[in-house]
C-alpha cells in the first residue's frame, strides 16, 4: 500500500479518496453520438457510468448484461430459470464435462502515449479513468503490457542503453517516461485493483549500436550470433529492466522475446523493430535469455515467444518449441490480431495448442483503426466493437487464455505517435475539456474482463441448429456459469439456454449486440 500512496503523491492524487466516491451501483452512460454508428460514454472528474460491483442472484435466477448498437452499455437485467423448455427454436446447451483452457486475464498497454494522455487530465479525471479499468467497480483489467523503452506510441526514439559499446550496461537507466509517467500510473492502478496485476514486458528494439543496421528502426537484427556478445548483452538488458522496475515494487509476470520480430525483417519498416527468424529466436532463448533469466532474481518471470501475428503459427512454434534447450525456458506463445482474417484460428491457434498443449496461448496486442482502409479514431464505432468481440470469442474458442488490448488511452487523433501511426483506443481523451470518452470497444472488453475471472474454465456449448450468434461459455472458480454472446446480424435472435445443472433460460439477443448471461449453479 505504501507504493500506492507514493504513486498518488506523484500524480497529485493523494487525497482524492475524500473527493471521489466510487459508484456502488450502476451509473448510466452519458451518451454522445459522433455519427459512427453508436454512442460513446462521456466521463469527467466527478462522473462516469459504471456497472458497479457485480453479484449474481441466487440459484434459480440469472443475470444479464447487454451492450448494443442502439445504445445499451452493460445494461443489467435479471430473470428466472425455467424447469421446462419452450420447445422449438434455437437452443444453446452448456456441456460442462467438455473442459478446455483456464483464463489468465484481460487488459491493455501502458505505452508512453497512454501515460501522456492519462496524465493530461485533472487528478480527478485520472482517478476516474483508472478506476474504469482496474477497480472492482470497473471492468476488471488484470493484465498490463509495458513497452521496454520507446515504441511508435512514444514521442521520441530511445532505449535504456544508448551509449555505444556499453556491453556491461553500466549506463543502463530507465527513461523519464518510466520514472515520471508509467511507473506512477502502474503503482496507482495496482492500488485500485483487488488483485495483483499481471505485468507483461515487451521490447521493440535493441540499442542501435547492437544492431546490423545501426538504427532503432527499419530492417535490422542483432549483430553476431546467439551465444555471442551482443545477444548476451541483449538478454542482460531484459534482466536490468526487471531489476529496475522491481525497485518500485513492480514485478513482471511475463516478458516476450520481442515485439513483432517479423517486422524487423521488412525493408523500409518505419518504426522500432528488431528482426528475428524463428531459428534465431530459438537459439537466443536457449543460449542467452533463458539462462540469464534463470540465474536472476526474476527467475519466475514467464517467457512468451512470437509476440507477432498468428499467421506465423504453427511454423514458428514448431521451430522454437521442438528444441528441448529453448523449450524448457518457455511458458507460452503470444499472438497479435492484425492478420487474423488471413488464417483460420483453428489452423493457427488450434493446431499449435494440440501440438504443444503444455504451452499456453496469450493475446498480447490488438487495436482498431490500424488498417489504411479504416484508419484512426472513430468515436462511437459499433463495427469496431463487434470486431473486438468476434476476435476475442474466436481466440477463446481456440485455447487462448487471455487478450490484451493496445493503448489504454489515446487522444482524439489517435496519438501521440512519433511516426503518425495513429489508431483507435477504448478510451479517448479530450484534455482541453478534461473529459474522456469510453468507446464501444471498451464495453466489448468489459463483457469478457468483468465476468471471466482468473481460473474460469472454458466448457462446451452446442447449438441445436445453424445460427448467426457467436458464443463462448465458462465455469468460474465458484461454479457459476458465464455465457457470452455476440449478435452481428441486423435481426433480433430468440433462443434458449439449457444448463443441465439448473434448467432453461429463455431470452433474446437484439440486433448488433453483445450479451453476457451469468448464473449460479449452487
UniProtKB/TrEMBL annotation:
Gene Ontology biological process terms, A to Z: autophagy; cholesterol metabolic process; glucosylceramide catabolic process; lysosome organization; negative regulation of macromolecule metabolic process; protein catabolic process; regulation of macroautophagy; regulation of membrane potential
Signal peptide from the UniProt entry: 1-25
Pfam families in the record: Glyco_hydro_30 (PF02055), Glyco_hydro_30C (PF17189)
Keyword Lipid metabolism: yes
Keyword line: Glycosidase, Hydrolase, Lipid metabolism, Signal, Sphingolipid metabolism
Annotated Glycosyl hydrolase family 30 beta sandwich domain residues: 455-517
Catalytic activity: beta-D-glucosyl-(1<->1')-N-(15Z-tetracosenoyl)-sphing-4-enine + cholesterol = N-(15Z-tetracosenoyl)-sphing-4-enine + cholesteryl 3-beta-D-glucoside; beta-D-glucosyl-N-dodecanoylsphing-4-enine + cholesterol = N-dodecanoylsphing-4-enine + cholesteryl 3-beta-D-glucoside; a beta-D-galactosyl-(1<->1')-N-acylsphing-4-enine + cholesterol = cholesteryl 3-beta-D-galactoside + an N-acylsphing-4-enine; 1-(beta-D-galactosyl)-N-dodecanoylsphing-4-enine + cholesterol = cholesteryl 3-beta-D-galactoside + N-dodecanoylsphing-4-enine
Listed EC numbers: 3.2.1.45
Domain Glycosyl hydrolase family 30 TIM-barrel: 103-452
GO molecular function: beta-glucosidase activity; galactosylceramidase activity; glucosylceramidase activity; glucosyltransferase activity; signaling receptor binding
Class of this enzyme: hydrolase
Subcellular location: Lysosome membrane
Membrane association type: Peripheral membrane protein
Record bears the keyword Signal: yes
GO cellular component, one term: lysosomal membrane
Pathway membership, UniProt: Lipid metabolism; Sphingolipid metabolism; Steroid metabolism; cholesterol metabolism
Homology family: Belongs to the glycosyl hydrolase 30 family.
Name of the protein this chain belongs to: Glucosylceramidase
Amino acid at each position: 500500500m505504501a507504493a500506492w500512496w507514493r504513486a498518488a503523491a506523484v500524480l497529485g492524487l493523494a487525497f482524492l479518496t475524500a473527493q471521489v466516491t466510487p459508484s456502488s451501483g450502476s451509473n448510466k452512460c452519458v451518451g454522445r453520438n459522433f455519427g459512427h454508428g453508436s454512442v460513446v460514454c462521456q466521463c469527467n472528474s466527478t462522473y462516469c457510468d459504471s456497472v458497479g460491483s457485480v453479484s449474481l442472484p441466487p440459484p434459480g435466477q440469472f443475470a444479464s448484461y447487454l451492450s448494443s448498437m442502439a445504445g445499451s452499455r452493460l445494461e443489467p437485467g435479471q430473470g428466472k430459470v425455467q424447469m421446462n423448455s419452450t420447445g422449438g427454436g434455437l437452443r444453446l446447451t452448456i456441456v460442462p464435462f467438455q473442459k478446455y483452457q483456464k483464463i489468465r486475464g484481460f487488459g491493455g498497454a501502458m505505452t508512453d502515449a497512454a501515460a501522456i494522455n492519462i496524465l493530461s487530465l485533472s487528478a480527478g479525471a485520472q482517478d476516474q479513468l483508472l478506476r474504469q479499468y482496474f477497480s472492482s467497480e470497473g471492468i476488471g483489467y488484470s493484465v498490463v503490457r509495458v513497452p521496454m523503452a520507446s515504441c511508435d506510441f512514444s514521442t521520441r526514439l530511445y532505449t535504456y542503453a544508448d551509449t555505444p559499446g556499453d556491453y556491461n550496461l553500466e549506463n543502463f537507466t530507465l527513461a523519464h517516461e518510466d520514472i515520471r509517467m508509467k511507473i506512477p500510473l502502474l503503482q496507482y492502478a495496482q492500488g485500485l485493483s483487488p488483485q495483483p496485476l499481471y505485468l507483461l514486458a515487451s521490447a521493440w528494439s535493441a540499442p542501435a549500436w547492437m544492431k546490423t543496421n545501426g538504427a532503432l528502426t527499419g530492417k535490422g537484427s542483432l549483430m553476431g550470433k546467439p551465444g555471442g556478445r551482443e545477444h548476451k548483452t541483449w538478454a542482460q538488458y531484459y534482466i536490468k529492466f526487471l531489476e529496475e522496475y522491481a525497485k518500485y515494487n513492480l514485478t513482471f509476470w511475463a516478458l516476450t522475446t520481442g515485439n513483432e520480430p517479423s517486422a524487423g525483417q521488412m525493408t523500409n519498416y518505419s518504426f522500432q523493430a528488431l528482426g528475428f527468424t524463428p531459428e534465431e529466436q530459438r537459439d537466443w532463448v536457449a543460449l542467452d535469455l533463458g539462462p540469464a533469466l534463470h540465474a536472476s532474481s526474476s527467475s519466475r518471470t514467464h517467457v512468451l515467444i512470437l509476440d507477432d501475428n498468428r499467421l506465423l503459427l504453427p511454423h514458428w512454434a514448431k521451430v522454437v518449441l521442438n528444441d528441448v534447450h529453448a523449450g524448457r525456458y518457455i511458458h507460452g506463445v503470444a499472438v497479435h490480431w492484425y492478420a487474423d482474417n488471413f488464417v483460420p484460428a483453428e489452423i493457427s491457434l488450434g493446431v499449435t495448442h494440440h501440438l504443444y498443449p503444455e504451452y499456453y496461448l496469450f493475446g498480447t496486442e490488438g487495436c482498431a483503426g490500424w488498417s489504411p482502409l479504416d484508419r484512426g479514431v472513430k468515436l462511437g464505432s459499433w463495427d469496431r466493437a463487434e470486431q473486438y468481440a468476434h476476435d476475442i470469442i474466436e481466440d477463446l474458442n481456440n485455447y487462448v487464455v487471455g487478450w490484451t488490448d493496445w493503448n489504454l488511452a489515446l487522444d482524439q487523433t489517435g496519438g501521440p505517435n512519433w511516426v503518425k501511426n495513429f489508431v483507435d483506443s477504448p478510451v479517448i481523451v479530450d484534455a482541453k475539456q478534461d473529459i474522456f470518452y469510453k468507446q464501444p470497444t471498451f464495453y466489448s472488453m468489459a463483457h469478457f474482463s468483468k465476468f471471466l475471472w482468473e481460473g474460469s474454465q472454458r466448457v462446451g456449448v452446442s447449438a441445436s441448429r445453424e445460427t448467426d450468434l457467436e458464443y463462448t461459455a465458462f465455469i468460474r472458480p465458484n461454479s457459476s456459469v458465464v455465457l457470452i454472446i455476440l449478435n452481428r446480424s441486423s435481426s433480433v435472435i430468440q433462443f434458449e439456454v439449457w444448463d443441465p445443472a439448473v434448467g432453461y433460460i429463455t431470452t433474446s439477443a437484439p440486433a448488433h449486440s453483445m450479451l453476457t448471461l451469468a448464473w449460479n449453479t449452487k
